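Reviewers asked in the last cycle whether our approach scales beyond single polypeptides. To address this, we selected a multi-component target totalling 720 residues and predicted its structure end to end. The input consisted of the following lines:
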Amino acid sequence: MVTAARAMVNCLEAEGIKTVFGYPGAAICPFYDELYNSEIEHILIRQESNGGHAASGYARVSGKPAVCIATSGPGATNLITAIATAYMDSIPIVCITGQVSTDLIGRDVFQEADITGAAEPFVKHSFLVKDANEICTVFKKAFYIAGTGRPGPVLIDVPFDVQLQKGVFEEPRNIEIRSYKPTKSGNKLQIKRVAQAIAAAEKPVICAGGGVFASKAVPQLRAFCEECRIPVVSTMMGISTMPSDHELFFGMVGMHGFESANTAISECDLLILLGARVGDRAVSVHGSFGSGFCLKDTKIVHIDIDPAEIGKNLAATIPVVGDLNYVLEQILQVVQKKSAFDDSPEEWLEYLKQVRADEYQKRNTPELLSSKKGFVNPKAFLYRLNQFLPAGSTVVADVGQNQIWTANHVKFGDGVRFMTSGGMGTMGYSVPAAIGAKKAAPEGEAVAICGDGSFQMQFMELATAIQHKINIKIIIMENRRLGMVRELQTNRYSDRQIAVSLEPTPDFIKIAQAYGINGEVVDDIENANAAIERMFKSTQPYILRVLVDEGERTII
Amino acid sequence: MKHTISVLVENNAGVLSRVSGLFARRGYNIHSLAVGVTEDENISRITIVAEGDDYILEQIEKQLNKLIDVIKVRSLSADELLARELVLAKINCTPAQRGEVIAIAEITKAKISDVCSGAMTLELSGNINTINTFVELIKPFGIKEMARTGTLAMQKGETATVEG
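The resulting structure, written as structure tokens, was:
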């Protein structure tokens, strides 16, 4: 006879979990007491939400569900932002929360919160375990649901007394959920129609979304676009599915994207959406806010594992429900090499390449790359970062101007992965997510790029990095402003700036030093290379405080 | 446009709140919602009458299907629809008016469930139009209290929702 808490730990071990991110409290203590005996490494994060983000970073790099833990009440409610962030970006995390004893539920006792109720809109599924005998089945189901189909967060809420209940717990070998059977292969007839549409198209374009990562279809995407000579654009979640400098890649779409990408979307005659949910900032039929848009007669192929995404924001001509990994293989088997008998793809490509080249010229004039005295041009800085970024690195952008600068100017692909909170736009994501990414792939670099606003939402995690020897790198784009909102106020609210100044800004290097972390200020672009080199050479966490002029624009 | 949607769900705790929460947060309008156990005690049937165009209906079906506890969603078209509602209505009724009320009950095939000196409670099951007509007929007496179940629905013919 063992406790259900022991069974919970056994279940995690059986799932192959090596690392968990959590924060203990009274209601989850029986579980922690059993974790004491386990080989599983526990990373003590400094705020529960960050545990969720760290698990998210870990899951994205490892491609498997990752685990975070919180106690009942405020511990659990703190997790909600991380759960919602993971939900919007379809990231598989399993969140374990303690709950007050079953006989006390509903009495508003100390640290009681209805977390399954509160988190309901943001979870793929949740469990409140009232019977210890169900614990192993619940865990098995949770990992299965989180990691299959369209991935997402699953919450397991376990009351204190249930954790202590003794019994003989057996882990089920297989799990069968009659109401949950995700589609893998695409409908053959639809696949044929896709192949025909590609053959008939003169100006096709592929829009790659985060689903390409979720279904581990990066190689298939590459094979598909190269075989058919189809230009590729990406959503923010799809950045780094293609190498930034790939001949067929034309950048991120949307209001903060590239003209080449938006031109491709608005002038194509066939749009192939791969695991992209067509968010309002990416593509809209109305073309509002400078986003790319589809002409009314554009044929749209929409391939997604979640049928609810097809036709939700954009009506699809040829919907295909399935796992991209399988569907792209299916398409590759029936599609004909177009370039062999038709010149049209090359004409279309040449046109887009010209747009891309012109845009590059326009965006990279010496003036636009120049830095004001005492400041560093963020784009020029990122171009320099590219020279030192080793293969196998993960770059996590936070939210705001730093996010768009990173998305558009860091050279991704061929081993350099981009991550950000795309759907929710959760500030404070980058540092904990980088911690998770680094734990999942310790051999690569994990670089968090954030602003001074977002850094101040998460710098307690410096303690986590130093305590657990997690060698992450942090670049703070410090403009002493909530830059993106400031820009919005300048452009749309007659420059009436309110609540966007962060001054007086603390000395982040001193803060880092207080945690035992080294760093340096970069206030001259000429010193950037040496600083970046020192950052990557350091075997400790390291911070670069990059001073950016407050007037720098998002699109530069 | 009104749609009748039959949803078979796992009879788990919290499933009703998952379903109703989905309607609330995605802004779908519910006319009525009725829930009860089916021939299989592990499965409940939720019958929802919702308002919306074809796009909304498609979204409702797809979003419901995403809920892990939802086994089957079926939107029932008017020609295959077997829909019933039950109403209990307590109306003012003096002894002098009883004859008139009994006459209405006979015509409408309503049942008299309770009688006392100043009131009478009638019950009727039928399709929505029947119920609405009945309610109009008894209104002049003064309805003290009324309870309606909301629509229960099933597909006509041999096929069951689980198979279909």
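Chain B touches chain A through 20 residues (CB under 8 Å). We regard this as preliminary and will revisit it once experimental data from Aim 1 are available.
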